[in-house]
Here is the input.
Amino acid sequence: MGATTLDEHLLDYRAIGDHTADVTFLDSRGITAHLTYRELAARARGAAGALLTRGLTPGDRVLLPLPTGPEHLTALLGCLLAGLVPCTIVEPANPGDPASTGARQFRAVTAVTTPAAVITTDAETANALALLGPGPAYLSTADLEMPESWEEQLPERRPDDAHHIQLTSGSTSAPKAAVLTHAQVTANVRAIQHALELDPDRDRVCHWLPLHHDMGFILTLSTMIKGVPLDLMPSISFLKDPLSWLRHISERGATITTAPPFGYRTTTDRYRRSPDQDLDLTKLRQAYVGAEPIPLQVLTDFRDTFVKHQLAEDVIIPCYGMAETVLAATMSLQHRPAGELSWGRVKALRLDREALHQHSRVSDAAPGRPSITVLACGRPLGDLTVHIRTPEGTNCPDDEIGEIHLRGDFVMAGYLSPEGTPQPVADRTHATGDLGFTRDGDLYIVGRAKELLIVNGRNLPPYDVEETIETHPGIEAGNSAVFSYTDDNGEHVVAVVETRRRADAHERIRREVATLVRQAFGFNLGEVIVLRRGGIPRTTSGKRRRSRLREQYLTERLA
Here is the structure.
């Protein structure tokens, strides 16, 4: 393959060492580690050699249950240099307990991805995970040092070779694994770099998103390939002190950041309780927001709270994307005229809520009627095209709701099949399962055709949450249902449970169900509703009708 073709289709990870910038690792208080790109490239080449000398071959899949840090980037880039296919996943909590949620999820992931190796933080963790999923080689980051005798050339990669695997749901029972090729990743990364106008002489990227999240992973790759200074903070540090995110941006002069809406909401709430008067956000020029439904009020509150700290109005940029398109699909990059529902790069519409929720119809809100605000997620990047389609497959005109289909060079090779190969995607088109419409070139998201929950940027199938709820002794198997809905304040998850227990036990059941979900999944239910047996609507075959339940809840007919 000639140099021109290689440059056209592939990102060159070998060139990271040519950059003079660095990666800095932070916690909520300050710097924890530091690597120049040259040092990182040398470590990654050593890791590639260590992996290849252990018998791994290009195309083998490697799981990375690692925290954000130098070892993670070393292992990740080592895999990519060696032609291996990394899949970064959440570190399993309590790997020594086979019944824990983390252990169950790890077993499910290994069953779907069938990795040749798993790289962990230390030998103790490797040994614990080996008991959960025998088969792969279990290595620790200490095993990734360059063998003294290894001087072989790194393998060449082809555009259609698998680049990485991204899990697309938080399921503990049946995660989907999207296979992304080098050509697809290259196309999306270059589109992102163009949209961000990344400049090594001007920019510094700072974010706290985990590297198992497509937003954190691809933004990190995009930054390193361009040679822009990068600051990474573990998400646990952000959750411990949300304002530390903005303090690092202020003190280190970061120009670009990103987070799901809950990150902006949490930071605003913490500031209002405990203001930090030393923030200076003058240099911040782009703050992307996506990964879950975006409430206008969250963005407005963030803007109004931090404008006193020199936050420019056009910094916030709504976007839409998913692992199946590598990352970014649309971005709201254009500047909007100032108005009640429009400012900076943010634009919203106020629609009739009943027409939208009950009749799937776009109708501008009228005075005195209930309304809902929906946000513009912008226009497609690169060659990607957005098609809104009816259930029959015909294209919808502007202002008609249908399922969002995305077509173009970013679209994945396919989900990993049980045979270990991607299931082909027809016509480079991904049916997202999201419902939306277009107006004046902008994409608006209004819901989901599928029942997937999106919580704090994570995709969760409702049956996983229901399975956890049904471990409660007062709730029998199949007697719970979980759904979500969106209003102007964001996404809310509601659990409905049936029980034989007496009414005086219902309040305790509500508290205990909320606790079970919080402990297992790390989020708070918006509401827990307890019904008598038979209260959950079902099909004739007994399946839970979650969409019907949601409709009854929104129209106050749930009892």
Notes: Residues 227 and 401 are 41 Å apart (CA to CA).
